[in-house]
């Protein structure tokens, strides 16, 4: 899994933003990740702990929020959120088309905000 | 105090990937990111391709997935330029690694750059490396439900190569089922069943390469 590279990139962005705002203590990092973004929240928390241990940022809490998958029907263009199990192969509730849909949301991975001082 | 940020966490990778795209556009190089599970036959497919098309195109390979030391030698033996990336156990190639590897390649008059990603159907999907197309390779000795299990990889690939079709009589793999899943996940995906051992089906893959090299040069 690539949580280690995510954690390192995260650390880089947080450090830049804190320096820019003259902050030194980090409390919380709010992250949003798409359901299809191949992120395992526990693994990311562990990786973030590993990259911040014995630094000024040690002890900060990651708040992770999943963004559901939204598909746009390949036939009628209707946007819908599929069931948990059948992420991409899901019949459109409007017209029944069950494949070829376009992924509109669910691949995101971004920091929304940090709480720091 | 709360500071809104809203920055893509993998922005550094995306930025370098965009720079690589510009470079490949300027030099008119078709860049292909090859992804598969370990052992699906990326190196064999490359070896066949590099040999068959060596009089037509100037090609180079960035090797991120070496199963054995022989792999690099097999690629080099075809006469193509090859450079190896040490991923230090990483699960995917990053655009920075590819940018670094490019320093060892002669890009002048290069037609095709193959980027052989780490054997893994999950992580490489998240990291663009400047490629024009993602190519996923699956061998018939794996399950025909792989597209269903790893939907993202198939959703974002332009081509699915189904390798080792000479073994179809001996395995429980339904070609139509695998191709059907892949097309359901991505209506534009092109599926090429082929066998590197017998050579069957390779011609349609070569035709795809010729078409896309021409498009890149146009
Ligand atoms: Zn519909």
Give a nutshell description of this structure.
The complex is a heterodimer of chains A (117) and B (218). Chain A is of the alpha+beta class.
Features:
heterodimer; A: 117 residues; alpha+beta; 3-stranded antiparallel beta sheet; B: alpha/beta; 7-stranded parallel beta sheet; 8 helices; 8 strands; binds zinc ion
Span between termini of chain B: 53 Å
Helical content of chain B, roughly? 25-40%
Alpha-beta classification of chain B: alpha/beta
Number of helices of chain A: 2
> Uncertain runs of chain B with pLDDT below 50, 5 residues or more?
none
Oligomer: heterodimer
- Shape, per Cα inertia axes of chain A: elongated
The largest contact between protein chains, plus residue counts on each side, is:
A-B, 34 and 32 residues
Bound molecules: zinc ion
Strand order of the largest sheet of chain B: 4-3-5-2-6-7-8
| Biggest sheet: strand arrangement of chain A | 2-1-6
Helix content of chain A: 25-40%
* H/E series of chain B: EHEHEHEHEEHHEHEH
Q: Largest sheet of chain B at a glance?
A: 7 strands, parallel
Question: Terminal Cα separation of chain A, in Å?
Answer: 32 Å
Let me know the number of strands of chain A.
6
How confident is the prediction overall: mean pLDDT of chain A?
Answer: 92
Instruction: Name the average pLDDT of chain B.
Output: 93
The proportion of strand residues of chain A reads 25-35%
Overall spatial form of chain B: globular
Major beta-sheet overview of chain A: 3 strands, mixed
Overview of the structural elements:
- The complex is a heterodimer of chains A (117) and B (218).
- Chain A is α+β, with helices and mostly antiparallel strands and 117 residues long.
- Chain A contains two helices and six strands, in the order αβαβββββ.
- In chain A, helix 1 packs across helix 2 (41-52).
- The longest helix of chain A is centred in the first third of the chain and has 18 residues, at 3-20.
- The model of chain A has no long low-confidence stretch (mean pLDDT 92).
- Chain B is α/β, with parallel strands linked by helices and 218 residues long.
- Chain B is built from eight helices and eight strands; from the N terminus they run E-H-E-H-E-H-E-H-E-E-H-H-E-H-E-H.
- Chain B has helices spanning 11-27, 42-52, 69-77, 95-102, 146-149, 151-155, 175-185, 202-217, and strands at 2-8, 30-36, 59-63, 81-84, 112-116, 133-139, 159-163, 190-193.
- Chain B has a seven-stranded parallel sheet, with helices on both faces.
- The radius of gyration of chain B is 17 Å and the shape is globular.
- Chain B starts with a strand and ends with a helix.
- Chain A binds chain B through residues 1-2, 5-6, 9-10, 12-13, 17, 21, 23, 31, 36-38, 74, 87-89, 98-100, 103, 107-117, and chain B through 1-13, 90-92, 94, 122-123, 125-127, 148, 151-152, 155, 181, 183-187.
- Bound molecules: zinc ion.
- Zinc ion binds at residues 73, 75-76, 78, 92, 94-95, 97 of chain A.
- Residues 73, 75-76, 78, 92, 94-95, 97 of chain A line the site of zinc ion (ZN).
């Amino acid at each position: 899994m690539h949580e280690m590279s995510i954690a390192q990139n995260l650390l880089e962005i947080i450090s830049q933003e804190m320096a820019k705002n003259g902050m030194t203590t980090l409390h919380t990092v709010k992250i949003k990740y798409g359901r299809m973004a191949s992120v395992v929240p526990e693994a990311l928390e562990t990786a973030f702990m590993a990259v911040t241990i014995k630094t000024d940022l040690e002890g900060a809490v990651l708040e992770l929020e999943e963004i559901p998958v939204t598909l746009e029907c390949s036939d009628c263009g209707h946007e819908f959120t599929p069931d948990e199990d059948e992420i991409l192969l899901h019949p459109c509730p409007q017209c029944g088309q069950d494949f070829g849909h376009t992924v509109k949301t669910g691949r995101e991975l971004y920091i929304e905000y940090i709480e720091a001082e | 105090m709360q500071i809104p940020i809203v920055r893509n966490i993998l922005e550094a990778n995306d930025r370098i990937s965009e720079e690589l795209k510009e470079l490949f556009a300027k030099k008119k190089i078709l860049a292909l990111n090859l992804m598969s599970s370990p052992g699906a036959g990326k190196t064999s497919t490359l070896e066949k391709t590099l040999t068959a098309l060596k009089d037509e195109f100037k090609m180079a390979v960035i090797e991120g997935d070496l199963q054995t030391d022989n792999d690099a030698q097999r690629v080099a033996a075809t006469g193509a330029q090859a450079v190896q990336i040490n991923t230090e156990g990483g699960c995917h190639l990053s655009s920075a690694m590819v940018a670094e590897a490019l320093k060892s390649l002669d890009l002048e008059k290069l037609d095709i750059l193959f980027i052989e990603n780490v054997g893994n159907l999950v992580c490489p999907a998240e990291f663009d490396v400047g490629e024009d197309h993602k190519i996923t390779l699956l061998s018939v000795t794996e399950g025909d439900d792989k597209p269903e299990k790893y939907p993202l990889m198939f959703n974002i690939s332009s081509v699915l190569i189904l390798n080792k079709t000479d073994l179809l009589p001996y395995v429980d793999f339904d070609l139509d089922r695998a191709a059907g899943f892949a097309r359901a996940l991505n209506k534009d995906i092109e599926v090429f069943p082929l066998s590197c051992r017998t050579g069957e089906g390779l011609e349609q893959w070569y035709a795809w390469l010729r078409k896309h090299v021409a498009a890149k040069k146009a």
